[in-house]
What does this fold into?
Amino acid sequence: MDQTIRILMLEDVATEAELALRELQRDGLRCELQRVETQAAFSTALSQHRPDIILSDYSLPGFDGLSALRIAQAQCPEVPFVFVSGTIGEEVAIEALRNGAVDYVLKNNLQRLASAVRRAIKERHERTARLHAESRFRDLIEFAPDAIVVINQHGKIETVNRQMELLFGCPRTRLVGTCSRSLIPARLAEWDQALSGEQAMLRALDTLGKPFEVPMCRADGSEFPAEISLSPLKTGDGLWISGVIRDLSERKEQEERLARMTRIRTILGSINGALLRIRDRKSLLREACRIAVEEGRFIGAAIGLVDPDTLIVTPQVWAGIDAEFLREVPVSADPSRPDGTGMVGTAMRTGESQVAHDLLQSSDLALWPAAMLKRGIRSTFVVPLMVGEQAIGVIALFSVKPDAFNPEEQQLLSALAADISFALDYIAKSEQLNYLAYFDAITGLPNRALFQDRMEQLVTQGVNGTPEKIAVVLIDIERFRDVNDTLGRAAGDDILRTVARRLRDIVSDSNYLARISADCFAFIVRENASVTEVANLLERKLSIQLSQPIPTHGRELRVFVKAGIALFPSDGTAADILLRNAEAALKNAKETKAHYLFYTAEMNVRTARKFSMENRLRRAFDRQQFVLHYQPKVNLASGEIVGLEALLRWQEPGVGLVLPGAFISILEETGLIVDVGSWVIQRACEQYQKWRAQGIDPPRIAVNVSQRQLRQENFVEHILQLATADGIRGLEIEITESLFMDDTNRDTACAKLAALRQAGMTVAIDDFGTGYSSLSYIAHLPIDTLKIDRSFVSDMAVSRSHKAIVSTIISLAHSLNLTVVAEGVETPEQEQLLAAFGCDQVQGFLYTPALPPDQIAPRLRRFFPTAAD
Ligand code: C2E
Ligand code: CA
Ligand code: CA
It folds into this structure.
């Protein structure tokens, strides 16, 4: 201790004081001693000199040490008080200490005085330091940004800080001592115990300062969302709880605002969807209101349109609110009328949206319709629906919350109104159009003007605001005028209606299908149409569907079409240009052999090769250049011809005999196979009858039937029509295994085959083994014969696995009572193996290739007895 210690000594005997001082100095303490004898002097010295320590005799004349202690405690409690006295007895000493003295030193043991003083001074320093720290800490708590409360073990509030007073709107004098339960709304029964005593302690230990949310309640009873964290607090009086409370109102509000914005965005999306879907004004508006209420969670929405003459705004549709409400709130755009000066009137006149943040706070409350207040509506937002410069109506949104419409939200809702306006304008335009002026009376399809209008919309706006690639396809019915001229207009109309119906089935969105001139249809392929997709659509779907015979006036007509295609954006970016280019392409197609042409040459090159082949085939069919050759099926055991397979050949002038491998796939792709296949059946039937007429008893003739043919709805009827009952019994149908792999057609295909068998035909599965069907699966099919594919037969001699497959197929087929035919038998070894496996019939070059009928006849030895002998 470097500083001089200022000692105040209460001692009536001066030498005693002297002794004490000497003792202290002897010990190296630097001190300054002031001696007083009376109570008055003591008191004055205390207040004037502020001693560092008080040394006091216990018994003084007219004044005792305990009274001095009391005075010192009252005046300067921080100054240590040490008794220095004669023997005072144990009890008195304890009493003195209890009353606040820090020590006592016996006069006959003065050597202890210095250490007692030292310790007392030191303790005093420590205590002041602690007090300083405590007061700093108290400040920290007091001015903390969060509300802090200390709750004692009885659930009573012990301490609160300033923020707590602010947050709960209550001075601490009222908060301290009340039950902590009062901080939480009474309606929350589960909190009855939870903030007091043990419960709170358990929770505090449980959550250990981790915050949890609970609504809290201000002094005025209003509630706010809060976050509390509780911690146990060890005090001299036991375990208490300290709680830190944070007001979540703002955060909640922000979350709520965010959620609201998301909702509004959803509305925008939904409404834009509706705008595209719905083309009738009333349903569109109704849908807009419904979406606003359901997805925007407004209490109500209404759309009103203005009568341009009377300026009265009439509600058209509404949601969430009732018609009664709207009747009670008349509105108009006429400023001279009282109902024309409100939000709606102002919005209509200024073209700007109007917002009322809180009806209850509004200065002219009287202006607000009672109907709104009655329904608890607190805020409203009115947006004008503008077409050009003109307001044609408003959309009004109502909320029971004050301030439901913040600026961002208002902006989004205005965008929404703009979208509705746009749709209204569009609808209005199309409504102005007389139906007949925009639709074709015969087919009910849009006409050229409407088609072009819709197309214009697609190329400028697209469906979702961004234009996508589209293809404009024009379809021209060939020789339509001939039909009209020869069969009359009624037949012509039938054709048009049928073509329209078939096109509707083909195009994905019939909004974009139109009849644009007498014999010309147009449609748009959307969804980022690619050249190949369009080509495929035309080749695979369109020509086939359209070329189906059309029954009209007791006969069947077949239409052939040509197509011209323009692509957006490569062939033009405006509707009229695209249409013109598609027309140019169509004109080209009509002048050439092309079935369809793209506007650009490059696109055409891609499909040109296919075209030329297809056209040649079409012509081949027209000019009857197809012929049938027949290949015998031989009974392996007897060598007898037991069947014939009709195989198609094309006798192309200047080229010679073309085998089906070169053209069957194109016939199938183009759908020509349907006509050609039907010709094959007819021809085979005729041949069968012809041979019979010649006295030959021919075996069954098998015809190959492709999937395409079988899929024709009237396939069975068609065959039964082509062939006589006798003929039917002379026919077999060969179909490939893969036909049954396609689940969607399996059942109908089976039904058709079953019907044909019923009529006397037989059915063979061709190319068996190349598909993946198991024999057990084959067991359920309506078939008679199984033809083992050529590849197995040819590999049999070199591949042991193929040998095993063939032998297995044969024995299993027999167990299913199926006849087995081996195709493509070329060598005696193959024949021997097949014989060993028990194969029933063989077909192949080893016996006879496919030959023209006149070369086959002599080999059919089975003449009728009458004709032969
Ligand atoms: P497919 O139904 O498997 O007909 C058997 C094919 O194998 C015929 O070829 C035939 O000439 C050939 N062939 C016969 N024996 C042998 C032989 O020992 N060795 C070899 N290497 N081949 C032999 P083609 O006539 O060229 O017919 C090919 C395919 O064209 C047929 O295969 C069939 O799928 C299809 N096809 C033929 N005519 C028609 C038809 O009228 N309609 C349909 N839809 N398809 C047909
Ligand atoms: Ca065949
Ligand atoms: Ca075959």
